[in-house]
Amino acid sequence: MVGTVTTAGILELMDICGSARPDADRDPLKMAQLAGSLHTVANLEVIRFPFDVTVLGEALGCSIDTGTKARTPAITSHPFSDRPAELCIPSDLLSQGRIPVVLEAARLLKDREGKKVPIVAGVEGPGDLASYLCGIKPLMVYFIRKPDIAAQVINKCVDGCIRYSNECLSAGADAVVIADAFSSPDMIGPDIFRQILKPELIRLAENIDGHSILHICGRTDSIIPDMLECGFNAISIEDSVSDLGQIIDMAHAKNVAVAGNISTSQTLYSKSPEDVRNEAFNCLKAGIDILAPGCGIAPETPLKNLHAMVKARDEYFG
Known about the structure:
It is built from 14 helices and nine strands. The radius of gyration is 18 Å and the shape is globular. The chain has a single domain (about 10-315), classed as TIM Barrel (Alpha-Beta Barrel). The strands form two sheets. It has a seven-stranded parallel sheet with strand order 1-4-5-6-7-8-9. Strands 2-3 form a two-stranded antiparallel sheet. Helix content is about 50%, strand content about 10%. The protein is of the alpha/beta class.
């Protein structure tokens, strides 16, 4: 299978399908149209939407820079940076911000493309969500000096992730991908991940009523065994890991699939289709389950390089 479980709103697709951000981030028809083009135009076999990971943060009170055609939405305020104890998940969460837009786009995609390809809804993970609500620096201070407060914040964020994830599945998504850059060893280190994030990710996976994928950015080698113990159906990894084949063997031993891990910042973004082919062949030789970008795709990524992923798979198995 060839697809993407990470963000993938590229400029060429916007031009071809006639649906561009920022409208495609806030209009369900345009969101579904742009997401559908990942299959109808880019020929991918997994559709991933929406095109950013700030939806829950906005719904819980963060201010948002809506971005441009070439720039994704970004968090601009952290409403609980100095009052983390006041964070709560409102009973009307699912009606807030852009959540209704994403849910309607899921219904539209299910009607249009759902019988052809899997539809994956992206949800920011609890670490990322906590960093949006509290700010990265204050949250890091809590992790180091007041771990009880950090754990309480993560716990509440997981509550929000569970509710949103399950509603995406009910609306038509075939799976959710929990994207959590904050959990990367590059950010918090493996010890803090194991002590605070891992137990909550286990609770998250246990309470998602459908297929789920865990994506953590960066060089995740030191926490791969922990990721595999969290209970998700699949993990998504970047190209920076040291031994893809070993990771796949470890994952398959636990009945976990692996998605990845073609370089987005180098190969897909700026190299040739032949380079994409070569990297794709390496992933396929290692036994990858879903041939996919290793992380979110830059808007300027050439469409021909997405096509090259599909062609490489076809050639490899042809």
